[in-house]
Protein backbone atom coordinates (compact mmCIF):
# COMPACT_ATOMS: atom_id res chain seq x y z
CA UNK A 1 0.00 0.00 0.00
CA UNK A 2 1.38 3.42 -0.97
CA UNK A 3 2.09 5.67 2.00
CA UNK A 4 -0.37 8.63 1.86
CA UNK A 5 2.16 11.08 3.31
CA UNK A 6 4.73 10.20 0.66
CA UNK A 7 2.06 10.56 -1.98
CA UNK A 8 1.24 14.09 -0.78
CA UNK A 9 4.91 15.02 -0.66
CA UNK A 10 5.39 13.73 -4.20
CA UNK A 11 2.48 15.80 -5.41
CA UNK A 12 3.89 18.86 -3.67
CA UNK A 13 7.31 18.27 -5.21
CA UNK A 14 5.76 17.88 -8.64
CA UNK A 15 3.73 21.06 -8.14
CA UNK A 16 6.82 23.00 -7.10
CA UNK A 17 8.70 21.63 -10.08
CA UNK A 18 5.95 22.60 -12.49
CA UNK A 19 5.67 26.04 -10.88
CA UNK A 20 9.43 26.52 -11.20
CA UNK A 21 9.34 25.56 -14.86
CA UNK A 22 6.46 27.93 -15.47
CA UNK A 23 8.18 30.79 -13.68
CA UNK A 24 11.38 30.06 -15.58
CA UNK A 25 9.63 30.08 -18.95
CA UNK A 26 11.70 32.49 -20.99
CA UNK A 27 10.44 35.91 -21.93
CA UNK A 28 11.05 36.25 -25.66
CA UNK A 29 12.06 39.71 -26.88
CA UNK A 30 12.38 40.74 -30.51
CA UNK A 31 15.07 43.29 -31.35
CA UNK A 32 15.13 44.80 -34.84
CA UNK A 33 18.39 46.23 -36.15
CA UNK A 34 18.24 48.39 -39.26
CA UNK A 35 21.84 49.57 -39.81
CA UNK A 36 23.21 46.16 -40.53
CA UNK A 37 26.46 44.53 -41.49
CA UNK A 38 27.86 41.12 -40.54
CA UNK A 39 30.39 42.70 -38.18
CA UNK A 40 27.81 44.93 -36.45
CA UNK A 41 25.40 42.04 -36.02
CA UNK A 42 28.16 39.88 -34.58
CA UNK A 43 29.09 42.58 -32.05
CA UNK A 44 25.43 43.09 -31.11
CA UNK A 45 24.95 39.35 -30.63
CA UNK A 46 28.02 39.27 -28.38
CA UNK A 47 26.53 41.99 -26.17
CA UNK A 48 23.17 40.21 -26.13
CA UNK A 49 24.91 36.98 -25.10
CA UNK A 50 26.36 38.83 -22.09
CA UNK A 51 22.87 40.09 -21.28
CA UNK A 52 21.32 36.64 -21.53
CA UNK A 53 24.02 35.22 -19.26
CA UNK A 54 22.83 37.67 -16.62
CA UNK A 55 19.16 37.07 -17.49
CA UNK A 56 18.72 33.36 -18.28
CA UNK A 57 14.94 33.83 -18.27
CA UNK A 58 15.10 36.03 -21.40
CA UNK A 59 15.40 34.95 -25.03
CA UNK A 60 16.20 37.54 -27.69
CA UNK A 61 15.44 37.16 -31.37
CA UNK A 62 17.39 39.58 -33.58
CA UNK A 63 15.76 40.60 -36.86
CA UNK A 64 18.31 42.22 -39.17
CA UNK A 65 16.88 44.45 -41.89
CA UNK A 66 19.18 45.55 -44.73
CA UNK A 67 19.45 49.35 -44.60
CA UNK A 68 18.42 49.87 -48.21
CA UNK A 69 14.97 48.39 -47.55
CA UNK A 70 14.75 48.83 -43.78
CA UNK A 71 12.33 51.77 -43.76
CA UNK A 72 9.79 49.92 -45.89
CA UNK A 73 10.31 46.54 -44.20
CA UNK A 74 9.85 47.91 -40.69
CA UNK A 75 6.72 49.72 -41.88
CA UNK A 76 5.37 46.46 -43.28
CA UNK A 77 6.04 44.70 -39.97
CA UNK A 78 4.16 47.40 -38.06
CA UNK A 79 1.21 47.36 -40.48
CA UNK A 80 0.86 43.61 -39.98
CA UNK A 81 0.92 43.98 -36.20
CA UNK A 82 4.44 42.58 -35.71
CA UNK A 83 5.71 45.14 -33.21
CA UNK A 84 9.30 44.54 -32.10
CA UNK A 85 10.06 44.99 -28.41
CA UNK A 86 13.25 46.97 -29.06
CA UNK A 87 14.14 48.69 -32.31
CA UNK A 88 17.26 50.43 -33.56
CA UNK A 89 15.73 53.83 -34.30
CA UNK A 90 17.46 56.28 -36.69
CA UNK A 91 16.82 59.97 -36.03
CA UNK A 92 15.25 60.20 -39.50
CA UNK A 93 12.42 57.88 -38.45
CA UNK A 94 11.91 59.06 -34.89
CA UNK A 95 9.54 61.88 -35.88
CA UNK A 96 7.27 59.55 -37.82
CA UNK A 97 6.80 56.94 -35.11
CA UNK A 98 6.79 59.41 -32.21
CA UNK A 99 4.22 61.73 -33.81
CA UNK A 100 1.99 58.72 -34.48
CA UNK A 101 2.10 57.94 -30.77
CA UNK A 102 3.73 54.56 -31.33
CA UNK A 103 6.92 54.92 -29.28
CA UNK A 104 6.95 54.40 -25.53
CA UNK A 105 7.50 57.42 -23.29
CA UNK A 106 10.88 56.85 -21.66
CA UNK A 107 10.78 59.83 -19.29
CA UNK A 108 9.62 57.78 -16.26
CA UNK A 109 12.36 55.24 -17.02
CA UNK A 110 15.03 57.95 -17.28
CA UNK A 111 14.10 59.36 -13.89
CA UNK A 112 14.94 56.11 -12.18
CA UNK A 113 17.94 55.09 -14.29
CA UNK A 114 21.40 55.47 -12.73
CA UNK A 115 22.93 56.32 -16.11
CA UNK A 116 20.81 59.42 -16.76
CA UNK A 117 22.90 62.00 -14.79
CA UNK A 118 26.00 61.16 -16.84
CA UNK A 119 24.37 61.57 -20.26
CA UNK A 120 25.42 64.65 -22.22
CA UNK A 121 22.94 67.46 -22.74
CA UNK A 122 23.05 66.76 -26.48
CA UNK A 123 22.05 63.15 -25.84
CA UNK A 124 19.00 64.13 -23.82
CA UNK A 125 18.05 66.83 -26.33
CA UNK A 126 18.10 64.31 -29.17
CA UNK A 127 16.21 61.75 -27.11
CA UNK A 128 13.44 64.37 -26.77
CA UNK A 129 13.68 65.87 -30.25
CA UNK A 130 10.20 64.71 -31.29
CA UNK A 131 7.63 66.50 -29.19
CA UNK A 132 9.84 67.14 -26.16
CA UNK A 133 9.39 63.66 -24.70
CA UNK A 134 12.16 61.07 -24.68
CA UNK A 135 11.26 58.31 -27.12
CA UNK A 136 14.71 56.81 -27.60
CA UNK A 137 18.10 56.53 -25.94
CA UNK A 138 20.65 57.58 -28.58
CA UNK A 139 23.68 55.30 -28.66
CA UNK A 140 25.94 57.79 -30.40
CA UNK A 141 26.33 60.65 -32.83
CA UNK A 142 27.37 60.73 -36.47
CA UNK A 143 29.16 63.86 -37.68
CA UNK A 144 30.21 64.26 -41.31
CA UNK A 145 33.82 65.03 -42.27
CA UNK A 146 35.96 64.50 -45.39
CA UNK A 147 38.13 61.40 -45.85
CA UNK A 148 40.89 61.95 -48.40
CA UNK A 149 43.35 59.55 -50.02
CA UNK A 150 46.86 61.01 -49.64
CA UNK A 151 48.38 58.79 -52.35
CA UNK A 152 45.86 59.78 -55.00
CA UNK A 153 46.18 63.43 -54.05
CA UNK A 154 49.95 63.18 -54.42
CA UNK A 155 49.61 61.55 -57.85
CA UNK A 156 47.44 64.49 -58.91
CA UNK A 157 50.00 67.01 -57.64
CA UNK A 158 47.96 67.94 -54.57
CA UNK A 159 49.31 68.14 -51.03
CA UNK A 160 46.33 68.74 -48.78
CA UNK A 161 42.59 68.25 -48.46
CA UNK A 162 40.33 70.91 -49.99
CA UNK A 163 39.40 73.69 -47.60
CA UNK A 164 36.65 75.30 -49.68
CA UNK A 165 33.90 74.12 -51.99
CA UNK A 166 35.73 75.59 -54.99
CA UNK A 167 38.88 73.66 -54.07
CA UNK A 168 36.78 70.53 -53.60
CA UNK A 169 35.51 70.74 -57.17
CA UNK A 170 38.96 71.63 -58.56
CA UNK A 171 40.67 68.78 -56.70
CA UNK A 172 38.04 66.28 -57.84
CA UNK A 173 38.65 67.39 -61.43
CA UNK A 174 42.45 66.93 -61.16
CA UNK A 175 42.17 63.52 -59.54
CA UNK A 176 39.60 62.32 -62.08
CA UNK A 177 42.03 63.34 -64.82
CA UNK A 178 44.40 60.59 -63.62
CA UNK A 179 42.27 58.09 -65.55
CA UNK A 180 42.45 54.36 -64.89
CA UNK A 181 38.91 54.43 -63.49
CA UNK A 182 39.85 56.84 -60.67
CA UNK A 183 37.40 59.56 -59.68
CA UNK A 184 37.63 62.45 -57.27
CA UNK A 185 34.53 61.89 -55.16
CA UNK A 186 32.70 58.87 -53.75
CA UNK A 187 29.11 59.98 -54.30
CA UNK A 188 26.25 58.29 -52.46
CA UNK A 189 23.46 58.25 -55.01
CA UNK A 190 21.43 55.51 -53.35
CA UNK A 191 19.66 55.35 -49.99
CA UNK A 192 21.28 57.61 -47.40
CA UNK A 193 22.48 60.24 -49.86
CA UNK A 194 20.32 62.99 -48.33
CA UNK A 195 23.11 64.21 -46.06
CA UNK A 196 25.37 65.29 -48.90
CA UNK A 197 22.58 67.15 -50.69
CA UNK A 198 21.60 69.03 -47.54
CA UNK A 199 25.21 69.81 -46.52
CA UNK A 200 26.23 71.23 -49.88
CA UNK A 201 22.99 73.17 -50.24
CA UNK A 202 23.48 74.68 -46.79
CA UNK A 203 27.15 75.48 -47.48
CA UNK A 204 26.40 77.28 -50.73
CA UNK A 205 23.37 79.03 -49.19
CA UNK A 206 25.30 80.04 -46.08
CA UNK A 207 22.65 78.92 -43.62
CA UNK A 208 21.67 75.81 -41.64
CA UNK A 209 18.00 76.82 -41.52
CA UNK A 210 15.57 74.52 -43.32
CA UNK A 211 12.55 76.84 -42.93
CA UNK A 212 11.62 80.46 -42.47
CA UNK A 213 9.45 81.60 -39.55
CA UNK A 214 6.28 80.85 -41.52
CA UNK A 215 7.30 77.26 -42.24
CA UNK A 216 8.38 77.74 -45.85
CA UNK A 217 11.30 75.63 -47.01
CA UNK A 218 14.55 77.46 -47.76
CA UNK A 219 15.71 74.86 -50.26
CA UNK A 220 14.64 77.03 -53.21
CA UNK A 221 16.94 79.90 -52.18
CA UNK A 222 19.42 80.63 -55.01
CA UNK A 223 22.38 79.50 -52.91
CA UNK A 224 20.68 76.24 -51.98
CA UNK A 225 19.85 75.47 -55.61
CA UNK A 226 23.48 76.22 -56.45
CA UNK A 227 24.57 73.68 -53.85
CA UNK A 228 22.34 71.00 -55.36
CA UNK A 229 23.67 71.84 -58.83
CA UNK A 230 27.19 71.48 -57.42
CA UNK A 231 26.55 67.77 -56.76
CA UNK A 232 24.83 67.27 -60.10
CA UNK A 233 27.84 68.82 -61.84
CA UNK A 234 30.26 66.62 -59.90
CA UNK A 235 28.50 63.55 -61.23
CA UNK A 236 27.73 64.67 -64.76
CA UNK A 237 31.27 65.98 -65.33
CA UNK A 238 32.70 62.58 -64.38
CA UNK A 239 34.21 63.59 -61.05
CA UNK A 240 32.34 60.73 -59.37
CA UNK A 241 32.12 57.11 -60.59
CA UNK A 242 29.34 56.52 -63.09
CA UNK A 243 27.85 53.67 -61.04
CA UNK A 244 27.87 55.77 -57.85
CA UNK A 245 24.35 56.91 -58.78
CA UNK A 246 23.26 53.65 -57.08
CA UNK A 247 25.85 53.52 -54.30
CA UNK A 248 24.92 53.09 -50.66
CA UNK A 249 27.14 53.10 -47.58
CA UNK A 250 29.07 49.90 -48.31
CA UNK A 251 29.79 50.92 -51.90
CA UNK A 252 31.10 54.41 -51.10
CA UNK A 253 33.33 53.09 -48.33
CA UNK A 254 34.77 50.28 -50.46
CA UNK A 255 35.12 52.74 -53.34
CA UNK A 256 37.33 54.86 -51.10
CA UNK A 257 39.56 52.20 -49.56
CA UNK A 258 39.98 50.43 -52.91
CA UNK A 259 41.26 53.66 -54.47
CA UNK A 260 38.39 54.01 -56.94
CA UNK A 261 37.63 57.51 -55.62
CA UNK A 262 39.76 59.87 -53.54
CA UNK A 263 37.31 61.79 -51.34
CA UNK A 264 34.47 60.60 -49.17
CA UNK A 265 32.18 62.58 -46.86
CA UNK A 266 31.23 60.26 -44.05
CA UNK A 267 30.80 59.78 -40.33
CA UNK A 268 33.23 58.01 -37.99
CA UNK A 269 31.50 54.70 -38.70
CA UNK A 270 33.30 54.53 -42.03
CA UNK A 271 36.59 54.16 -40.12
CA UNK A 272 35.64 50.57 -39.24
CA UNK A 273 36.25 49.26 -42.74
CA UNK A 274 38.72 51.89 -43.94
CA UNK A 275 41.27 51.47 -41.17
CA UNK A 276 41.15 47.69 -41.69
CA UNK A 277 41.76 48.04 -45.43
CA UNK A 278 44.21 50.95 -45.74
CA UNK A 279 47.55 51.91 -44.27
CA UNK A 280 46.78 54.70 -41.76
CA UNK A 281 49.48 56.83 -43.41
CA UNK A 282 47.62 56.71 -46.74
CA UNK A 283 44.49 58.55 -45.68
CA UNK A 284 43.33 61.24 -43.33
CA UNK A 285 40.11 62.98 -42.28
CA UNK A 286 39.65 66.73 -42.74
CA UNK A 287 36.78 69.08 -41.92
CA UNK A 288 34.11 69.58 -44.58
CA UNK A 289 34.91 72.26 -47.20
CA UNK A 290 33.78 75.78 -46.40
CA UNK A 291 31.11 77.56 -48.42
CA UNK A 292 31.30 81.10 -49.86
CA UNK A 293 30.47 82.62 -46.46
CA UNK A 294 33.39 80.86 -44.78
CA UNK A 295 31.20 78.34 -43.00
CA UNK A 296 30.46 74.65 -43.42
CA UNK A 297 27.47 72.75 -42.12
CA UNK A 298 28.42 69.10 -41.56
CA UNK A 299 25.37 67.02 -40.77
CA UNK A 300 25.05 65.59 -37.31
CA UNK A 301 22.76 62.68 -36.72
CA UNK A 302 22.15 59.97 -34.22
CA UNK A 303 20.64 56.52 -33.82
CA UNK A 304 19.46 54.81 -30.69
CA UNK A 305 17.20 52.29 -29.04
CA UNK A 306 13.42 52.71 -28.81
CA UNK A 307 10.53 50.54 -27.70
CA UNK A 308 7.03 50.46 -29.12
CA UNK A 309 4.01 51.09 -26.91
CA UNK A 310 2.46 47.98 -28.39
CA UNK A 311 5.35 45.81 -27.22
CA UNK A 312 4.23 43.06 -24.82
CA UNK A 313 7.23 43.21 -22.48
CA UNK A 314 7.77 46.85 -21.53
CA UNK A 315 9.83 46.34 -18.36
CA UNK A 316 12.09 43.72 -19.94
CA UNK A 317 12.50 45.86 -23.06
CA UNK A 318 13.64 48.83 -21.00
CA UNK A 319 15.97 46.58 -19.01
CA UNK A 320 17.61 45.50 -22.27
CA UNK A 321 17.87 49.09 -23.56
CA UNK A 322 19.44 50.28 -20.30
CA UNK A 323 21.92 47.39 -20.49
CA UNK A 324 22.95 48.24 -24.06
CA UNK A 325 23.13 51.92 -23.07
CA UNK A 326 25.19 51.67 -19.89
CA UNK A 327 28.53 53.47 -19.92
CA UNK A 328 30.72 50.42 -20.51
CA UNK A 329 28.61 48.89 -23.26
CA UNK A 330 27.97 52.23 -24.95
CA UNK A 331 31.66 53.03 -25.17
CA UNK A 332 32.38 49.56 -26.58
CA UNK A 333 29.57 49.93 -29.13
CA UNK A 334 30.54 53.51 -30.06
CA UNK A 335 34.12 52.52 -30.77
CA UNK A 336 33.01 49.58 -32.86
CA UNK A 337 30.29 51.19 -34.97
CA UNK A 338 32.01 54.56 -35.25
CA UNK A 339 29.93 57.06 -33.30
CA UNK A 340 30.79 59.79 -30.84
CA UNK A 341 29.59 58.44 -27.48
CA UNK A 342 26.70 59.70 -25.33
CA UNK A 343 28.40 60.07 -21.93
CA UNK A 344 30.11 63.12 -20.47
CA UNK A 345 33.90 62.90 -20.73
CA UNK A 346 33.90 59.83 -22.99
CA UNK A 347 35.90 61.71 -25.62
CA UNK A 348 38.87 61.58 -23.23
CA UNK A 349 39.22 57.87 -23.95
CA UNK A 350 42.54 57.16 -25.66
CA UNK A 351 40.74 55.68 -28.67
CA UNK A 352 39.42 59.10 -29.69
CA UNK A 353 42.89 60.66 -29.56
CA UNK A 354 43.92 58.89 -32.79
CA UNK A 355 44.95 61.28 -35.63
CA UNK A 356 42.03 60.11 -37.79
CA UNK A 357 39.59 61.81 -35.42
CA UNK A 358 41.21 65.23 -35.82
CA UNK A 359 38.81 66.31 -38.58
CA UNK A 360 35.72 65.62 -36.49
CA UNK A 361 37.03 67.34 -33.40
CA UNK A 362 38.12 70.34 -35.51
CA UNK A 363 34.50 70.64 -36.61
CA UNK A 364 33.27 70.36 -33.04
CA UNK A 365 35.71 72.97 -31.74
CA UNK A 366 35.80 75.64 -34.47
CA UNK A 367 33.11 78.31 -35.03
CA UNK A 368 33.57 77.87 -38.79
CA UNK A 369 31.72 74.54 -38.63
CA UNK A 370 28.08 74.57 -37.58
CA UNK A 371 26.56 71.08 -37.22
CA UNK A 372 23.47 70.70 -39.39
CA UNK A 373 20.57 68.98 -37.66
CA UNK A 374 18.02 67.42 -39.97
CA UNK A 375 14.32 68.27 -39.36
CA UNK A 376 13.62 64.82 -37.99
CA UNK A 377 10.67 66.19 -36.01
CA UNK A 378 8.65 66.06 -39.23
CA UNK A 379 6.29 63.13 -39.55
CA UNK A 380 7.18 62.70 -43.22
CA UNK A 381 10.94 63.12 -42.92
CA UNK A 382 11.67 59.40 -42.92
CA UNK A 383 9.87 58.93 -46.23
CA UNK A 384 11.51 62.04 -47.68
CA UNK A 385 14.96 60.88 -46.63
CA UNK A 386 14.62 57.23 -47.65
CA UNK A 387 12.47 57.41 -50.78
CA UNK A 388 11.85 60.87 -52.24
CA UNK A 389 15.44 62.13 -52.25
CA UNK A 390 16.83 58.88 -53.59
CA UNK A 391 14.37 58.52 -56.45
CA UNK A 392 14.32 62.15 -57.59
CA UNK A 393 18.06 62.77 -57.22
CA UNK A 394 18.87 59.68 -59.26
CA UNK A 395 16.61 60.97 -62.03
CA UNK A 396 18.37 64.34 -61.94
CA UNK A 397 21.87 62.90 -61.88
CA UNK A 398 20.99 60.80 -64.92
CA UNK A 399 19.63 63.85 -66.78
CA UNK A 400 15.98 62.78 -66.59
CA UNK A 401 15.04 65.85 -64.56
CA UNK A 402 16.55 69.28 -63.91
CA UNK A 403 17.98 70.44 -60.60
CA UNK A 404 15.62 73.36 -60.06
CA UNK A 405 12.51 71.20 -60.57
CA UNK A 406 13.88 68.57 -58.19
CA UNK A 407 14.56 71.15 -55.49
CA UNK A 408 11.13 72.75 -55.93
CA UNK A 409 9.50 69.37 -55.37
CA UNK A 410 11.56 68.84 -52.22
CA UNK A 411 10.67 72.28 -50.91
CA UNK A 412 6.97 71.79 -51.60
CA UNK A 413 6.92 68.52 -49.67
CA UNK A 414 8.91 69.86 -46.70
CA UNK A 415 6.89 73.08 -46.51
CA UNK A 416 3.68 71.08 -46.26
CA UNK A 417 5.19 68.90 -43.53
CA UNK A 418 6.56 71.85 -41.54
CA UNK A 419 3.30 73.80 -41.67
CA UNK A 420 1.39 70.73 -40.51
CA UNK A 421 3.83 70.37 -37.64
CA UNK A 422 3.53 74.05 -36.71
CA UNK A 423 -0.28 73.81 -36.75
CA UNK A 424 -0.11 70.84 -34.40
CA UNK A 425 1.93 72.86 -31.89
CA UNK A 426 -0.85 75.44 -31.40
UniProtKB/TrEMBL annotation:
<dbReference type="InterPro" id="IPR006059">
    <property type="entry name" value="SBP"/>
</dbReference>
<dbReference type="Pfam" id="PF01547">
    <property type="entry name" value="SBP_bac_1"/>
</dbReference>
<feature type="signal peptide">
    <location>
        <begin position="1"/>
        <end position="25"/>
    </location>
</feature>
<keyword id="KW-0732">Signal</keyword>
<protein>
    <submittedName>
        <fullName>ABC-type sugar transport system, periplasmic component</fullName>
    </submittedName>
</protein>
<keyword id="KW-0449">Lipoprotein</keyword>
<keyword id="KW-0762">Sugar transport</keyword>
<keyword id="KW-1003">Cell membrane</keyword>
<dbReference type="InterPro" id="IPR050490">
    <property type="entry name" value="Bact_solute-bd_prot1"/>
</dbReference>
<dbReference type="GO" id="GO:0042597">
    <property type="term" value="C:periplasmic space"/>
</dbReference>
<keyword id="KW-0813">Transport</keyword>
<dbReference type="GO" id="GO:0030313">
    <property type="term" value="C:cell envelope"/>
</dbReference>
<keyword id="KW-0472">Membrane</keyword>
<comment type="similarity">
    <text>Belongs to the bacterial solute-binding protein 1 family.</text>
</comment>
<keyword id="KW-0564">Palmitate</keyword>
